[in-house]
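Submission checklist for the structure archive. All mandatory fields must be present; incomplete records are returned to the submitter.

[x] Identifier: S-acyl fatty acid synthase thioesterase, medium chain
[x] Organism: Scleropages formosus
[x] Residue count: 254
[x] Sequence attached
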Amino acid sequence: MDKVISCFGKRPDAATRLLCFPWAGGGSIHYARWGNLVNSAIEVYSVRLSGREGRAKEPFATSMQQIVKEVADTLLPALQEKSFALFGHSFGAMACYAVAEYLKKVHNLEPVHIFLSGASAPYSETRLQAPNRSQMSDEEFLHWMKTVGGTPAEILDNPEVLKLFVPVLRADLKVIEHFRCPKPDKPFLSCPVSCFDGKQDIPHDLQAWKDITKGEFTIQMLPGSHFYLKDNANEKIILDYITKHLETADMDYL
């Protein structure tokens, strides 16, 4: 499991595990450090995808199904052991959806809460009409990365580092561009779903996420563009919200 998951400070007595999925091109460290920022009732598992960090020599995943299968197969015993929640931003939000759907349909497992950020629902028209980025020329790709923000200047200004980073980002974008799923005929979850987004990001169809659950559904907009969650103040708001809801999650299901 240590190959697929980063966990800063294991908490075997934690009541709930929070499983976090990276944004496109992202690693596991950003969310793994959340393990040091939340209270002892929550253990943070941050997903490390192939082709990056300690898995740099492995080939990139070529489909969302491949990612789902690896994560689900690796974590199934842990997810059956105690309650869990999911968090994902952008590409990670899509992975959350795919993993949640698979766990429910194949193993009848359901998270106690899903937290989604910076993405339209995968079956929404907004998502289906989004431009493909993975096939851009290097010049166009670099310009787009600068426009979106969130990529550190030390990466953007260093050609050698860019050579390592861009293939990872392109690979993840290719996965998401080929990820297609129909709108659910009916909600397949009953847990709460909470959406976050940056007020200055391009508009996302957050409302469409309501179709996946019969449970409570909320949307919260925070200041900033696509990587608004990297802002310390916004991060604190998100973590406080997650902590509050996971602390009471088990009571909601009694």
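[x] Structure attached
Curator remark: Residues 5-252 form a domain with the Rossmann fold fold (CATH 3.40.50.1820). The chain has a mean pLDDT of 92.
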